[in-house]
């Protein structure tokens, strides 16, 4: 037992005993004990009221000296109060620095609680999204920034995804929105102005589309004259040059066609959910087309594990299959194997193209979907592609809410897996091809 408590108990007992003794001298010990108890209680109540008054006025001079229990209570309270004041000041300074740093950020930052209500936002969020820190505090951010994609992003808790929405304060502005975890049961909504980037991308797309259209007409004329020269029986010394020019003209036509397709895909919206695609049927058709073509190539195997159909654009999905298959055949020796697989489950469906070719090094995989990127730049142009096929695949998949996953090991082959979400799969209209191989 602490010394202060022992002294308090002994002092109280002694005081009560003295009162009882005095009462016993006068023949009424119980009266003396009662008077002493009431006096002790009154003194403690007086001390308690004085301490309560000191808590309100912050004046503890009456308790600063002495060894009683109340002096020790004050001492402990004073230490705790000073410690709390230091922590409070430190917290205030830290909060001030955080606000200064967030206000200096060019990107908008909005702190949200578990119900997506605004806790705090920085100055950039006010400028980019028109948020009012005091007025909008406690309001749901999706009630202020009304956009279905933003609402879906907030509800999904997908901290890797980002969306682009129209700016609520500028008729020509665009904002990139991303959600990241922040604190306990909180999220941070990041807003970035991407108007200039989208404007430059539109200028690039328009330039590529216009240039491709302008190049197609003179190239058609050149190809026509070359075909006429070849058909009319050119001199022997012209045969090889003319054939080379025809091959390059065809190559340029292919490049222009793919550039135009890319431009159309970049300017198009999401593929409609109203149309269905028989993926298995497209795989059979692609295999048949390559088997009937001239030239040796790797063996093509089909693994149809599902008869589910895909909701989307049939010609675009056909382009995905064709580009992935041609890419695999181009990098797989004639004695190798290329496997096309279609399977589905509750989470969605996967279209996978696997080859036993040369493989791709890890540092090149992130760049495979870039335009005109070729892993082996030393490969002859006639043997390789133009570097647009996988870029087309990427854009088609994005129009179908799908993702491209690439795995490869040098010398062992590659796997290109296209994952389509469950919303894009119609399992109720399964075709009777599940389990087919060939």
Describe the protein's architecture and organization:
- The protein is of the alpha+beta class.
- It has four domains: 3-95, no CATH class; 105-193, PAS domain (Beta-Lactamase, 2-Layer Sandwich), CATH 3.30.450; 199-267, Signal transduction histidine kinase, dimerisation/phosphotransfer (DHp) domain (Helix Hairpins), CATH 1.10.287.130; 276-437, Histidine kinase-like ATPase, C-terminal domain (Heat Shock Protein 90, 2-Layer Sandwich), CATH 3.30.565.10.
- 50% of the residues lie in helices and 18% in strands.
- It contains eleven helices and 14 strands.
- It has helices at 3-25, 29-57, 69-104, 123-129, 141-144, 148-156, 195-231, 236-267, 279-292, 314-330, 389-399; strands at 108-112, 118-121, 162-166, 174-181, 187-193, 276-277, 299-304, 309-311, 337-345, 348-355, 403-409, 413-421, 425-426, 436-437.
- The strands form three sheets. Strands 11-12-10-9-7-14 form a six-stranded mixed sheet, with helices on one face.
- Helix 7 (195-231) runs antiparallel to helix 8 (236-267) and helix 8 packs parallel to helix 11 (389-399).
- It starts with a helix and ends with a strand.
- The model is unreliable at 378-382 (pLDDT under 50).
Percent helix, as a range, is 40-55%
CATH topology of the largest domain: Heat Shock Protein 90
Number of helices, counting only DSSP H or I runs of 4 residues or more: 11
Question: Beta-strand level of the residues, as a percent range?
Answer: 15-25%
CATH homologous superfamily assignment of the largest domain: Histidine kinase-like ATPase, C-terminal domain
The biggest sheet amounts to: 6 strands, mixed
